[in-house]
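One such given next:
>
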Amino acid sequence: KNNDILTFPTNREIYAPFTVTNKTLTIQGNNTIIDATSMGVSAVTINNGSETVTISNFTVQGGSSSIGAGILLDSGNLVLTSSTVISNTASSSGGALYVASSGSVVTLTSVNMESNTAGANGGAIYNNGTINAQTLTLADNDATDGAGLYNNGTATVETLSTIQRNEASNDGGGVFNTLNGNLTLNNDDVSTNLAVNGAAVFNEGILNTNGTDFGSGNVASQTGGGLYNSGTATLVNSAVVQNEGATGAGIYNSGTLTATNSTLSRNDGANGAGLYNNGGTATLNNVTIHLTIGTSLFANNGTVTVGNSILSSVSGQVTCGKSGSGALQSNGYNLAKDQSCTFLTAAGDLQGLDPGLIGINSPAGGAAYHAPKLTSPVIDAGNPAEIGSNSTACLAADQRGLARPQSNRCDIGAVEIVVYRQFVSIVLK
């Protein structure tokens, strides 16, 4: 009946597919397993009009179908909590979950989707609807494109979610966000994914991140170890660290990219190991590009504009380069480790100085960063304009959320040095 609550006994195993049709229903498991191994069908099918099904404490496994092998949400809404969707195989798309309708809303909380496979797109998830996910794990999934998530709708993934060890034989090892996709990643870890292009994230649509780590260990055999962007991407308080790719090991951009308060570090690739801009438009403010193995910043056509930022490669590597009609522009108050960034001629620009940064810090639940040493030349060398007063001024807080400035002026780069004041009592006798 509608609005029923169905509760299963502890440790029950169900060796049959499960179908819900046109009912608002709550299904409460207790370490319950739905196993559709060798049945050639989706383990769970929901064809529910505009109704909502709520499922908790289940393991869904062994499904095998064209789409949605684990869970096929044909219509209606789904709330899935404290559950695992594992070892399902779709010959086409959506190994763990296929959201068919643009009108469907899916809420995922503390859900693990692991070791699922799709022959085409979305090893774990294929989404045409709206997904809101917290503490979601997408791990060890395989597909042609978007091994973790293939997003053709709207998806928000946040609150310490992890997208790890997924492998795409083509693009988007962790995530493939299509031209129609609108994707938000907040406080997530996207690491150790593999693909030809966009090992962590391949973005054609709209991408927004805040506090998200792209790394470590994402490897693209061609471009965009951390991020491949041909759409519109905005990175805030985020990090692209220890990724690999032949071109654009950190970020490959042919679209519109804005990065603020973000760190690109230890990325390994021949050209544009930090950022490779190929016909796109990129704007960096309060960004740290450091310890790249290969050219840190490379413009091959298109325009990159940099302000209040650190540009630094490992010793022996050239920091900046360009070819074709590529343009590198300065909004001022940047620091480059060597003399290769010849475009740094605006007010406050510094060249040929070691930025003097501490080694990488990877805080739990936050994006990795490099803080300045006490002797660093980036300290108090940022734009002296009032904080946040214009598009080239320093931002009001740093990558960690600490206020700027901590002393007389803001620092160059993603992170402000913390000033500690010690008060000493003096007693006169």
In short: The radius of gyration is 24 Å. The mean pLDDT is 96. The CA atoms of residues 130 and 154 lie 5 Å apart.
